[in-house]
Design goal:
Elements lengths: L1 E8 L2 E8 L2 E5 L1 E5 L11 H6 L5 E4 H6 L3 H7 L2 H5 L5 E4 L2 H6 L2 E6 L2 E5 L6 E4 L1 H11 L3 E3 L11 H26 L10 E6 L5 H12 L5 E4 L8 H11 L9 E3 L5 H8 L5 E3 L2 H7 L2 E4 L2 E4 L19 H5 L2 H9 L3 H27 L3 H12 L5
Parallel strand pairs: 4-5, 4-14, 5-6, 6-10, 10-11, 11-12, 12-13, 13-14
Antiparallel strand pairs: 1-2, 2-3, 7-8, 8-9, 15-16
The structure holds guanine (GUN) and zinc ion (ZN).
Protein backbone atom coordinates (compact mmCIF):
# COMPACT_ATOMS: atom_id res chain seq x y z
CA UNK A 1 0.00 0.00 0.00
CA UNK A 2 1.18 3.44 -0.85
CA UNK A 3 -0.51 6.53 0.57
CA UNK A 4 0.62 9.89 -0.58
CA UNK A 5 -0.67 13.34 0.35
CA UNK A 6 -0.75 15.27 -2.91
CA UNK A 7 -1.56 18.63 -1.44
CA UNK A 8 -3.21 20.34 1.51
CA UNK A 9 -5.45 23.39 1.70
CA UNK A 10 -5.58 24.42 5.33
CA UNK A 11 -6.19 21.13 7.12
CA UNK A 12 -8.05 19.62 4.13
CA UNK A 13 -6.03 16.80 2.55
CA UNK A 14 -6.00 15.66 -1.07
CA UNK A 15 -4.37 12.22 -1.15
CA UNK A 16 -3.97 9.07 -3.22
CA UNK A 17 -3.90 5.51 -1.94
CA UNK A 18 -2.65 2.65 -4.10
CA UNK A 19 -3.92 -0.83 -3.29
CA UNK A 20 -3.85 -4.26 -4.94
CA UNK A 21 -7.34 -3.45 -6.22
CA UNK A 22 -6.40 -0.09 -7.70
CA UNK A 23 -6.04 3.53 -6.74
CA UNK A 24 -8.32 5.53 -4.44
CA UNK A 25 -8.38 9.31 -4.81
CA UNK A 26 -9.31 10.98 -1.52
CA UNK A 27 -11.36 12.55 -0.04
CA UNK A 28 -13.67 9.67 -1.02
CA UNK A 29 -17.19 8.56 -0.20
CA UNK A 30 -17.51 4.77 0.01
CA UNK A 31 -20.85 3.42 -1.23
CA UNK A 32 -22.50 1.19 1.37
CA UNK A 33 -23.44 -2.32 0.23
CA UNK A 34 -23.96 -3.97 3.58
CA UNK A 35 -24.66 -7.49 2.35
CA UNK A 36 -22.52 -7.18 -0.77
CA UNK A 37 -25.29 -5.30 -2.57
CA UNK A 38 -26.26 -1.64 -2.58
CA UNK A 39 -29.89 -1.52 -1.45
CA UNK A 40 -32.26 -0.22 -4.11
CA UNK A 41 -31.36 -2.77 -6.83
CA UNK A 42 -28.05 -1.08 -7.69
CA UNK A 43 -25.58 -3.36 -9.50
CA UNK A 44 -21.80 -3.20 -9.61
CA UNK A 45 -22.16 -2.09 -13.27
CA UNK A 46 -24.20 0.84 -11.93
CA UNK A 47 -21.48 1.62 -9.37
CA UNK A 48 -18.88 1.85 -12.13
CA UNK A 49 -21.18 4.18 -14.08
CA UNK A 50 -21.80 6.56 -11.17
CA UNK A 51 -18.13 6.91 -10.28
CA UNK A 52 -17.88 4.75 -7.16
CA UNK A 53 -14.30 4.17 -6.03
CA UNK A 54 -14.77 1.95 -2.98
CA UNK A 55 -17.58 -0.41 -2.02
CA UNK A 56 -18.22 -1.10 1.68
CA UNK A 57 -19.63 -4.35 3.03
CA UNK A 58 -20.21 -5.77 6.49
CA UNK A 59 -18.46 -8.71 8.10
CA UNK A 60 -21.36 -9.48 10.40
CA UNK A 61 -24.06 -9.56 7.70
CA UNK A 62 -22.05 -11.70 5.28
CA UNK A 63 -21.10 -14.05 8.10
CA UNK A 64 -24.68 -14.71 9.24
CA UNK A 65 -26.11 -14.97 5.73
CA UNK A 66 -24.44 -16.98 2.98
CA UNK A 67 -21.28 -17.14 5.08
CA UNK A 68 -17.70 -16.08 4.56
CA UNK A 69 -16.49 -19.68 4.08
CA UNK A 70 -18.65 -20.08 0.98
CA UNK A 71 -17.53 -16.70 -0.32
CA UNK A 72 -13.90 -17.69 0.17
CA UNK A 73 -14.56 -20.95 -1.68
CA UNK A 74 -16.03 -18.89 -4.53
CA UNK A 75 -12.80 -16.91 -4.71
CA UNK A 76 -13.58 -13.98 -2.39
CA UNK A 77 -16.06 -11.11 -2.29
CA UNK A 78 -14.56 -9.31 -5.29
CA UNK A 79 -15.23 -12.25 -7.60
CA UNK A 80 -18.56 -13.03 -5.91
CA UNK A 81 -19.93 -9.49 -6.56
CA UNK A 82 -18.00 -8.89 -9.79
CA UNK A 83 -16.31 -5.79 -8.39
CA UNK A 84 -12.57 -5.48 -8.98
CA UNK A 85 -11.99 -2.13 -7.28
CA UNK A 86 -11.33 -1.63 -3.57
CA UNK A 87 -13.71 -3.05 -0.97
CA UNK A 88 -13.65 -2.06 2.70
CA UNK A 89 -15.26 -4.41 5.20
CA UNK A 90 -16.45 -3.20 8.58
CA UNK A 91 -15.44 -5.52 11.39
CA UNK A 92 -18.82 -6.49 12.81
CA UNK A 93 -18.27 -4.72 16.11
CA UNK A 94 -20.62 -1.84 15.39
CA UNK A 95 -23.25 -4.02 13.69
CA UNK A 96 -23.31 -6.42 16.62
CA UNK A 97 -23.94 -3.49 18.94
CA UNK A 98 -26.62 -1.92 16.79
CA UNK A 99 -28.45 -5.00 15.46
CA UNK A 100 -27.95 -8.26 17.25
CA UNK A 101 -30.00 -9.15 20.29
CA UNK A 102 -28.85 -10.13 23.78
CA UNK A 103 -25.15 -9.53 23.74
CA UNK A 104 -22.54 -10.03 26.37
CA UNK A 105 -19.18 -8.30 26.07
CA UNK A 106 -16.21 -10.16 27.55
CA UNK A 107 -12.46 -9.73 27.26
CA UNK A 108 -12.36 -12.46 24.58
CA UNK A 109 -15.10 -10.88 22.45
CA UNK A 110 -18.86 -10.57 22.13
CA UNK A 111 -21.54 -13.24 22.56
CA UNK A 112 -24.77 -12.42 20.79
CA UNK A 113 -27.79 -13.78 18.92
CA UNK A 114 -28.11 -13.58 15.14
CA UNK A 115 -30.66 -10.98 13.95
CA UNK A 116 -31.76 -13.49 11.28
CA UNK A 117 -32.66 -16.59 13.30
CA UNK A 118 -31.54 -15.86 16.85
CA UNK A 119 -28.81 -18.54 16.99
CA UNK A 120 -25.88 -17.92 19.30
CA UNK A 121 -22.71 -16.48 17.79
CA UNK A 122 -19.36 -15.49 19.27
CA UNK A 123 -17.21 -12.87 17.60
CA UNK A 124 -13.88 -11.58 18.85
CA UNK A 125 -10.92 -9.90 17.17
CA UNK A 126 -9.57 -13.16 15.70
CA UNK A 127 -12.98 -14.28 14.38
CA UNK A 128 -13.55 -10.87 12.77
CA UNK A 129 -10.12 -10.96 11.09
CA UNK A 130 -10.70 -14.54 9.83
CA UNK A 131 -14.07 -13.60 8.35
CA UNK A 132 -12.65 -10.48 6.67
CA UNK A 133 -9.71 -12.53 5.40
CA UNK A 134 -12.14 -15.09 3.92
CA UNK A 135 -13.96 -12.24 2.17
CA UNK A 136 -10.62 -10.94 0.89
CA UNK A 137 -11.54 -7.27 1.17
CA UNK A 138 -8.92 -4.63 0.34
CA UNK A 139 -9.23 -2.98 3.75
CA UNK A 140 -10.27 -4.78 6.93
CA UNK A 141 -11.45 -2.82 9.96
CA UNK A 142 -10.33 -3.65 13.49
CA UNK A 143 -12.86 -5.23 15.85
CA UNK A 144 -13.93 -2.51 18.27
CA UNK A 145 -16.61 -1.57 20.73
CA UNK A 146 -18.61 1.56 19.98
CA UNK A 147 -19.78 2.58 23.47
CA UNK A 148 -23.38 3.85 23.71
CA UNK A 149 -23.68 7.65 23.58
CA UNK A 150 -25.10 7.74 27.14
CA UNK A 151 -22.18 5.70 28.64
CA UNK A 152 -20.32 7.13 31.65
CA UNK A 153 -16.73 8.37 31.32
CA UNK A 154 -15.68 5.40 33.43
CA UNK A 155 -17.39 2.90 31.11
CA UNK A 156 -15.88 4.63 28.06
CA UNK A 157 -12.37 4.50 29.53
CA UNK A 158 -12.55 0.76 30.22
CA UNK A 159 -14.18 0.05 26.87
CA UNK A 160 -11.48 1.99 24.99
CA UNK A 161 -8.71 0.13 26.83
CA UNK A 162 -10.29 -3.17 25.78
CA UNK A 163 -10.64 -1.91 22.19
CA UNK A 164 -6.87 -1.22 22.25
CA UNK A 165 -6.13 -4.78 23.45
CA UNK A 166 -8.48 -6.09 20.74
CA UNK A 167 -6.61 -4.00 18.16
CA UNK A 168 -3.29 -5.64 19.08
CA UNK A 169 -4.94 -9.07 18.67
CA UNK A 170 -6.40 -8.01 15.30
CA UNK A 171 -2.97 -6.98 14.07
CA UNK A 172 -1.31 -10.24 15.14
CA UNK A 173 -4.06 -12.35 13.56
CA UNK A 174 -4.10 -10.30 10.34
CA UNK A 175 -0.32 -10.73 9.95
CA UNK A 176 -0.69 -14.48 10.47
CA UNK A 177 -3.55 -14.75 7.94
CA UNK A 178 -1.70 -12.65 5.34
CA UNK A 179 1.25 -15.06 5.57
CA UNK A 180 -0.84 -18.16 4.75
CA UNK A 181 -0.60 -19.53 1.18
CA UNK A 182 -4.37 -19.97 0.58
CA UNK A 183 -5.46 -16.53 1.82
CA UNK A 184 -7.69 -14.71 -0.74
CA UNK A 185 -5.90 -11.34 -0.46
CA UNK A 186 -2.51 -11.67 1.21
CA UNK A 187 -2.04 -7.91 1.08
CA UNK A 188 -5.14 -7.14 3.10
CA UNK A 189 -4.81 -3.82 4.92
CA UNK A 190 -5.86 -3.15 8.51
CA UNK A 191 -7.30 0.13 9.78
CA UNK A 192 -7.47 0.77 13.54
CA UNK A 193 -10.46 2.55 15.08
CA UNK A 194 -10.29 5.43 17.56
CA UNK A 195 -13.03 5.53 20.19
CA UNK A 196 -13.72 7.60 23.30
CA UNK A 197 -17.21 9.03 22.98
CA UNK A 198 -17.19 12.81 23.30
CA UNK A 199 -14.54 12.77 26.05
CA UNK A 200 -11.66 14.83 24.64
CA UNK A 201 -8.88 13.40 26.83
CA UNK A 202 -9.82 9.76 26.17
CA UNK A 203 -10.08 10.40 22.42
CA UNK A 204 -6.66 12.07 22.25
CA UNK A 205 -4.92 9.54 24.46
CA UNK A 206 -6.39 6.65 22.47
CA UNK A 207 -5.37 8.27 19.17
CA UNK A 208 -1.78 8.62 20.42
CA UNK A 209 -1.76 4.99 21.60
CA UNK A 210 -2.96 3.52 18.31
CA UNK A 211 -0.73 5.73 16.15
CA UNK A 212 2.21 3.86 17.70
CA UNK A 213 0.80 0.57 16.41
CA UNK A 214 1.77 1.31 12.80
CA UNK A 215 -1.49 0.48 11.07
CA UNK A 216 -2.33 1.04 7.40
CA UNK A 217 -4.95 3.65 8.28
CA UNK A 218 -6.92 5.12 11.15
CA UNK A 219 -10.66 5.48 11.60
CA UNK A 220 -12.55 7.70 13.98
CA UNK A 221 -15.52 5.64 15.19
CA UNK A 222 -18.26 6.14 17.73
CA UNK A 223 -19.45 9.45 16.24
CA UNK A 224 -22.84 10.37 14.76
CA UNK A 225 -24.42 8.22 17.45
CA UNK A 226 -26.54 10.94 19.05
CA UNK A 227 -24.11 13.76 19.90
CA UNK A 228 -24.56 17.20 18.30
CA UNK A 229 -22.77 18.15 15.08
CA UNK A 230 -20.73 20.70 17.04
CA UNK A 231 -19.55 18.02 19.48
CA UNK A 232 -18.58 15.78 16.56
CA UNK A 233 -16.61 18.59 14.86
CA UNK A 234 -14.89 19.39 18.15
CA UNK A 235 -13.84 15.75 18.64
CA UNK A 236 -12.40 15.79 15.10
CA UNK A 237 -10.60 19.07 15.85
CA UNK A 238 -8.76 17.49 18.78
CA UNK A 239 -8.40 13.88 17.56
CA UNK A 240 -7.25 14.05 13.93
CA UNK A 241 -4.05 15.99 14.84
CA UNK A 242 -3.10 13.07 17.17
CA UNK A 243 -3.21 10.61 14.24
CA UNK A 244 -0.36 10.24 11.73
CA UNK A 245 -0.47 12.77 8.84
CA UNK A 246 0.93 10.25 6.40
CA UNK A 247 -1.86 7.71 6.87
CA UNK A 248 -5.49 7.77 5.67
CA UNK A 249 -8.14 8.97 8.14
CA UNK A 250 -11.66 7.52 7.93
CA UNK A 251 -14.71 8.98 9.69
CA UNK A 252 -17.08 6.04 10.10
CA UNK A 253 -20.78 6.32 9.29
CA UNK A 254 -20.78 10.04 8.44
CA UNK A 255 -22.83 11.69 7.15
CA UNK A 256 -24.79 14.54 5.57
CA UNK A 257 -23.16 16.56 2.77
CA UNK A 258 -22.58 19.34 5.35
CA UNK A 259 -20.94 16.89 7.81
CA UNK A 260 -18.59 15.68 5.05
CA UNK A 261 -17.66 19.23 4.00
CA UNK A 262 -16.82 20.07 7.64
CA UNK A 263 -14.90 16.84 8.30
CA UNK A 264 -12.79 17.22 5.13
CA UNK A 265 -11.86 20.63 6.50
CA UNK A 266 -10.52 18.81 9.59
CA UNK A 267 -8.33 16.38 7.67
CA UNK A 268 -10.61 13.37 7.08
CA UNK A 269 -10.25 11.49 3.80
CA UNK A 270 -12.60 8.45 3.91
CA UNK A 271 -16.37 8.48 4.52
CA UNK A 272 -19.34 6.15 4.35
CA UNK A 273 -22.99 6.59 5.18
CA UNK A 274 -26.36 5.01 4.47
CA UNK A 275 -28.07 8.40 3.99
CA UNK A 276 -27.90 8.67 0.19
CA UNK A 277 -29.23 5.15 -0.38
CA UNK A 278 -31.72 5.19 2.52
CA UNK A 279 -33.03 8.64 1.58
CA UNK A 280 -33.24 7.56 -2.05
CA UNK A 281 -35.46 4.63 -1.14
CA UNK A 282 -37.80 7.12 0.55
CA UNK A 283 -37.91 9.46 -2.43
CA UNK A 284 -35.71 12.08 -0.76
CA UNK A 285 -33.18 13.34 -3.28
CA UNK A 286 -30.21 15.67 -2.92
CA UNK A 287 -29.70 18.74 -5.08
CA UNK A 288 -27.38 21.73 -4.85
CA UNK A 289 -30.43 23.68 -3.67
CA UNK A 290 -31.22 21.26 -0.84
CA UNK A 291 -33.18 18.03 -0.55
CA UNK A 292 -36.45 17.39 -2.41
CA UNK A 293 -39.18 15.01 -1.32
CA UNK A 294 -40.43 13.58 -4.62
CA UNK A 295 -43.65 12.38 -2.97
CA UNK A 296 -44.68 16.05 -2.79
CA UNK A 297 -47.67 16.82 -5.02
CA UNK A 298 -45.93 19.86 -6.49
CA UNK A 299 -43.83 17.51 -8.63
CA UNK A 300 -46.77 15.69 -10.26
CA UNK A 301 -46.39 17.54 -13.56
CA UNK A 302 -42.76 18.61 -13.15
CA UNK A 303 -41.00 17.70 -16.39
CA UNK A 304 -37.52 18.70 -15.14
CA UNK A 305 -34.95 16.12 -14.06
CA UNK A 306 -34.21 15.85 -10.31
CA UNK A 307 -31.35 18.28 -10.90
CA UNK A 308 -30.75 20.27 -14.06
CA UNK A 309 -27.34 19.36 -15.51
CA UNK A 310 -26.88 16.21 -13.39
CA UNK A 311 -25.23 13.41 -15.38
CA UNK A 312 -26.72 10.50 -13.44
CA UNK A 313 -28.82 7.78 -15.12
CA UNK A 314 -32.02 9.14 -13.51
CA UNK A 315 -31.52 12.76 -14.57
CA UNK A 316 -30.33 11.89 -18.07
CA UNK A 317 -33.60 10.14 -18.91
CA UNK A 318 -36.49 10.82 -16.53
CA UNK A 319 -38.62 13.63 -15.13
CA UNK A 320 -39.44 14.34 -11.50
CA UNK A 321 -43.09 13.66 -12.40
CA UNK A 322 -42.37 10.16 -13.70
CA UNK A 323 -40.08 9.23 -10.80
CA UNK A 324 -42.76 10.51 -8.37
CA UNK A 325 -45.29 8.27 -10.14
CA UNK A 326 -42.95 5.25 -9.82
CA UNK A 327 -42.44 5.93 -6.11
CA UNK A 328 -46.17 6.28 -5.47
CA UNK A 329 -46.83 3.06 -7.40
CA UNK A 330 -44.15 1.38 -5.26
CA UNK A 331 -42.28 0.35 -8.39
CA UNK A 332 -38.69 -0.74 -7.67
CA UNK A 333 -37.45 1.50 -10.47
CA UNK A 334 -38.47 4.60 -8.49
CA UNK A 335 -36.25 3.73 -5.53
CA UNK A 336 -33.47 2.62 -7.84
CA UNK A 337 -33.40 5.91 -9.79
CA UNK A 338 -33.46 8.01 -6.59
CA UNK A 339 -30.64 5.91 -5.07
CA UNK A 340 -28.52 6.22 -8.22
CA UNK A 341 -29.02 9.98 -8.27
CA UNK A 342 -28.12 10.36 -4.58
CA UNK A 343 -24.97 8.23 -4.82
CA UNK A 344 -23.97 10.13 -7.95
CA UNK A 345 -24.56 13.39 -6.05
CA UNK A 346 -22.26 12.27 -3.21
CA UNK A 347 -19.59 10.90 -5.57
CA UNK A 348 -19.69 14.11 -7.61
CA UNK A 349 -19.43 16.27 -4.49
CA UNK A 350 -16.29 14.34 -3.50
CA UNK A 351 -14.80 15.02 -6.93
CA UNK A 352 -15.59 18.74 -6.51
CA UNK A 353 -13.99 18.63 -3.06
CA UNK A 354 -10.81 17.04 -4.47
CA UNK A 355 -10.62 19.64 -7.26
CA UNK A 356 -11.21 22.50 -4.82
CA UNK A 357 -8.42 21.31 -2.49
CA UNK A 358 -6.02 20.87 -5.40
CA UNK A 359 -6.78 24.40 -6.55
CA UNK A 360 -6.49 25.77 -2.99
CA UNK A 361 -10.02 27.18 -2.96
CA UNK A 362 -11.60 24.75 -0.48
CA UNK A 363 -12.88 27.42 1.92
CA UNK A 364 -14.74 29.25 -0.87
CA UNK A 365 -16.06 26.01 -2.32
CA UNK A 366 -17.33 24.80 1.06
CA UNK A 367 -19.04 28.11 1.86
CA UNK A 368 -20.78 28.22 -1.54
CA UNK A 369 -21.87 24.58 -1.39
CA UNK A 370 -23.26 24.97 2.14
CA UNK A 371 -25.06 28.20 1.29
CA UNK A 372 -26.70 26.56 -1.75
CA UNK A 373 -27.91 23.53 0.18
CA UNK A 374 -29.14 25.48 3.19
CA UNK A 375 -32.10 23.76 4.77
CA UNK A 376 -31.08 20.22 3.84
CA UNK A 377 -30.07 18.62 7.10
CA UNK A 378 -29.89 14.91 6.30
N1 LIG B 1 -19.59 2.46 11.81
C1 LIG B 1 -19.99 3.65 12.33
N2 LIG B 1 -19.39 3.86 13.53
C2 LIG B 1 -18.63 2.77 13.79
C3 LIG B 1 -17.77 2.39 14.89
O1 LIG B 1 -17.62 3.10 15.88
N3 LIG B 1 -17.14 1.18 14.78
C4 LIG B 1 -17.30 0.36 13.69
N4 LIG B 1 -16.65 -0.80 13.64
N5 LIG B 1 -18.09 0.70 12.65
C5 LIG B 1 -18.75 1.89 12.71
ZN1 LIG C 1 -29.22 12.97 -11.09
Amino acid sequence: MKYQVITKDGRAKRARMETVHGTVETPVFMNVGTVGAIKGAVSTDDLREIGTQVELSNTYHLHVRTGDKLIKEFGGLHRFMNWDRPILTDSGGFQVFSLAGLRKIKEEGVYFNSHIDGHKIFMGPEESMRIQSNLGSTIAMAFDECPPSHASDDYIRHSVERTTRWLARCKTEMERLNSLPDTVNREQLLFGINQGGVVEEIRMEHARTIREMDLDGYAVGGLAVGESHEEMYHILDVTVPCLPEDKPVYLMGVGTPANILEAVDRGVDFFDCVYPSRNGRHGHVYTNQGKLNLFNQKYELDSRPIEEGCGCPACRSYSRAYIRHLLKAKEMLGMRLCTLHNLYFYNTMMKEIRDAIEEHRYAEYKAAKLAGMEGSSR
